[in-house]
Amino acid sequence: MVYRHFRTLCIVRVAFLCATICALAYVLFETSYYTTVLILAGMTLYQAYALIHYVERTSRDLTRFLQAVRYEDFSQSFSGRGLGAAFDDLKEAFNEVLNAFRRTRAEKEENFQYLQTVVQHVGVGLVCYGSNGRIELMNTAAQRLLRRPHIHNVRELEPVSETLADTLLALGPGDRTLVKVQDEDELLQIIIHATEIRMRGESFILASVQDIQSELEEQEMEAWQKLIRVLIHEIMNSITPISSLASTVRGHFPESGRSSPLDQQTAADVSAALETIQSRSEGLQQFVDTYRQLTRIPRPDFQICPVVGLFDRVASLMNPECESAGIALRTRVEPETLEVTADPNLVEQALINLVRNAAEALAGRDQPRVDLTASLDRRGRVLIRVQDNGPGILDEVQDRIFIPFFTTRQEGSGIGLSLCRQIMRQHRGAISVQSTPDEETVFTLRF
């Protein structure tokens, strides 16, 4: 309808222009009315200009509409002034299309902001990058885990871990791998799962990164506790009747000097054997009672505890033992008002175990010392360190010292550090060790 009106108006304008031109030719060649000639010439020029402007105005509006769609500039508007009522419908259609695009873009922006909010607040770290390593997206969880708030390329993660950067760049769609990252005194076990997405005709890798060190430690402790419960149950079922029978037989066995159907040497051998059986049975019972501690740690009674108070109580208990061995026990808390939410009794027990282990390791060292320090790390968590200048711990031993039954001392039970680890797990924290042979050993409690 619009274009039919447009064609009709164009024909009418051309007809009037032709009539004006004919009239101008007649007056010019057949009469001497020069004033009329000038008037008709002006009318001819005006009608020619009006026709051209009428046609080009439509083309300009159509071009402006298409460019607005192409460049998503939906602030444009169209009016029918100067084109007649025939183009009102066309202008209205242009405006309706632009309004529809404007609403669609607003909805798209709202959805984008919603997805951005979800991605930034999800607890799993997400990193999206191209084949050249350029990072398109890195959410808050990934920035907090990797301690890199503003990076543009995966290679910028090399100061954190070169292995991590190489692994991310080598990942393919559907790959899943585990990377160990040593972040100062904290070990991170980062599990990475990759998937492929396509945007703007390009392929990108979306990798989820998550530290599962605490989950691995918790499952490991649960497995050890189950094993220890089974061992205790089986050992006690066997040892208790053996010990009881040995004690009963010894009670009925003739004492030295009394008549016996056995000769004196045989009686002595049997008596010694029974005594050995009973002694070892009691020793195994004590062994079992010792390891029961790992399965009977009470639930923490959480309180807000000043760290200075914790250190003072530990120092008052351990100072006599350290002074008798010539060991300097020093404490430092920064800031002095530092507090931790924990069970003070359990934390004190863990610190006493660590200080006692350090004191035993310092035997025979020159100028032995043990330092108890507390501070905040870069993530705002409370750190308590027990540091000594002892012989250190070998690298191959560091990975096993928290395992129950494992000990490097002849008279050690192998539960002290396991007990500390279990206490920290119940506090939703962690314990780690860093050691340099012949220089120092540092145990870190991270709350």
Major sheet: arrangement of strands: 2-1-5-4-3
Unreliable residue runs: none
SS strand fraction: 15-25%
Instruction: Estimate percent helicity.
Output: 40-55%
Choose one word for the global shape: rod-shaped
Q: State Rg.
A: 44 Å
Summarize the helix and strand pattern as letters.
HHHEEHHEEEHHEHEEHEEHHEE
The overall average pLDDT, rounded, is 77
Structural class: alpha+beta
Number of strands: 12
Instruction: Please summarize the sheet with the most strands.
Output: 5 strands, antiparallel
- Total DSSP helices: 11
End-to-end distance, in Å? Answer: 77 Å
Word description of this protein:
This protein is of the alpha+beta class and 447 residues long. Helix content is 53%, strand content 19%. It is built from eleven helices and twelve strands. It has helices spanning 2-30, 34-70, 88-121, 140-146, 162-170, 213-252, 264-291, 307-324, 344-361, 395-398, 416-426; strands at residues 125-130, 135-138, 176-183, 186-199, 202-211, 303-306, 328-333, 339-342, 369-376, 382-388, 430-436, 440-446. The strands form three sheets. It has a five-stranded antiparallel sheet. A five-stranded mixed sheet has the order 7-9-10-12-11, with helices on one face. Helix 8 (307-324) runs parallel beside helix 9 (344-361). The mean pLDDT is 77.
